[in-house]
Amino acid sequence: MRLILGACLAALAASPAWADYWNYKDWHAATEPHETEQDSYLTCRAWTGGDGDPILALEVFSGDGGPPDFYPMAKVQEYAPRHYPTLMQRGGAVDFIFDFDRSFSVSAGINSWINEEGLAEAESALQLQDHLLMLQAMKQGSWVEIWAGNDMFYEASLSGFTAAYGRMMDECGFNLSLPAE
């Protein structure tokens, strides 16, 4: 019991200090304030997954440029257990295939690395011109399959995505509407 309690406390200490947190079905949104001598801003994030699964997430900073010039990038983040590689490997590609049209997909490159603790991590990196396209597909869909090569390694629910995206964008002061395709 002490081991479980210790592990929970360690995980809590390692997690970011989110000031505000909301749940929308399978999605979450949170804000984290940052104060410096020169500036004050928010990090706003929306995500699904975690607890051993990859994370499909978006993040914006209140000081960044936003829509209609720049849209946040949706990315999948993968964290492997100690001594194991990630399924996503540098130089490869990840494909996002949506339920509403199995012939439609969005592809992204992969960055992978070993973190300071010796654990393998990886994340997808969409091209700038695909950011809005990906968000529109996420708003339209019910779920998205995430494939690395011939392996589907995660199916993310999009239930609650639109509400979490809207909260994230609103909290950081951005327009939350997405233009029609």
Note down, in words, how this protein is organized.
The structure is a single chain. This protein has 181 residues and is an alpha+beta fold. Helix content is 19%, strand content 39%. The protein contains 3 helices and 10 strands, in the order αββββββββαββα. Strands 1-2-3-4-5-8-7-6-9-10 form a 10-stranded antiparallel sheet, covered by helices on one side. The radius of gyration is 17 Å and the shape is globular.
What's the count of strands?
Answer: 10
- The portion of residues forming beta strands comes to 35-45%
Distance between the termini: 52 Å
Give a quick account of the main beta sheet: strands, pairing sense, barrel closure. Answer: 10 strands, antiparallel
Mean pLDDT: 89
Morphology call: globular
Topology of helices and strands:
Blueprint: H1 2-14, E1 20-24, E2 27-35, E3 40-49, E4 55-61, E5 75-79, E6 93-98, E7 105-114, E8 120-125, H2 131-140, E9 143-148, E10 151-157, H3 161-171
Antiparallel strand pairs: 1-2, 2-3, 3-4, 4-5, 5-8, 6-7, 6-9, 7-8, 9-10
Structure summary:
The chain has 181 residues and is α+β, with helices and mostly antiparallel strands.
